[in-house]
Amino acid sequence: MKQLVEYIVSNLVNHPEDVVIEEEKTPGEEDSSNIIIQVNPEDIGRVIGRSGKVINAIRQIARIAAIQKGVRVRVDLKDDGQPQPQVQEAPTLEE
Question: What pLDDT, on the 0 to 100 scale, is given for residue 41?
Fold first, then answer.
């Protein structure tokens, strides 16, 4: 999973040499891990994308790959030492 995310992110950014991907096992869960993406501060916007579309697409691709392997994965973006919360779109009510 780590290699997949690293490949995607490295090809998106202007400074691929600064891409660092960390994979941590989720405590208490065997088949679950957290992938933390760290990039050059100039590339944060490219990885997040407009309205979070790029980071959400990366998360979705990682989830699909994880499902195929029978595991769970969570992808976070680290900015200034702090992982970014996952962007969740609120459902809209249409009347």
Answer: 92
